[in-house]
Structures are given as C-alpha cells and as structure tokens.
Amino acid sequence: MTLINHLTTTLRDDKGMSTVEYAMGSLAAAALAAVLYGVINAPAVVSAIEGIITDALSSAP
After folding, report:
1. At the N or C end, where does the chain have fewer CB atoms within 10 A?
2. What are phi and psi of 15, to 5 degrees?
C-alpha cells in the first residue's frame, strides 16, 4: 500500500466519530445547564419564584 492510499484510507475512516458526537453533546448540555443555573439564580427570578410560592401557600382553597 502506498503512502497516499494509506493516508486516504485513514482520513476517510469514521472510527471514533460517535465518541466525538457524544462529547460535543455533553459539552452543549453542560453549557446549557450553566446558563440555566445563572438565570435561575438571578435575583429577579428568585424573588418572582418566592412570590409565586408565597401567594400559593397563603391563598385559601
């Protein structure tokens, strides 16, 4: 096998692609989780959630 044929075969090989796809998916999920964590911990969101819970607990059925 010549060097050109070997390089062509090696570069066209899809082995390991699913691993890269899982890694990219995991990275995207972690980034989304970090953004959502930041939004949920914002003071305006925390006070809004506390207000909703307080209203729900104080109202009589």
Report:
1. C
2. -65, 135
